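Example record

One chain of 159 residues, shown exactly as stored in the release files.
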Amino acid sequence: MNSEFYASLDRQAKALLDGEDDLIAAMANFSALINDALEDLNWVGFYLLKNKQLVLGPFQGKVACTRIPLGKGVCGTAASERKTLRIADVHQFDGHIACDGASNSEIVIPVMHEQQMVAVLDIDSPSLARFSETDQAGLEKLVNSFENALFAQTTTNLS
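Predicted structure tokens for this chain:
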């Protein structure tokens, strides 16, 4: 995928989120948009930060882990470090949590609101090294658009 693809996807995401003020509805449609637009994925979804752990939110894919402790696995590590993690081979990641044995690469992007992490967007692929630097930049921009569109108007309780 190239930057033009992600610019187009970002416009679609903004249109999809325009006027939506429910966090769960927005997450459900946002994950579906990414799942439909990107190739070679087997899971796309959110984990919400609740009571110092990540709790499964809206997603597209097979049954998933319900709770992930902060600092554990790719998602928990990305959440605790508050930074994107792009992992070429999840089997080489110390402490990887295998919710789906078919996943071989993963990218996890924190979702922030008022300087606080509220969730992570987790995207898995059955291919090794599926996510490039271009994918990371494009997906981070999408998440930023998600944050701006939703949190500017949401009244949803985020805790």
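Notes: Residues 154-159 have pLDDT under 50 and may be disordered.
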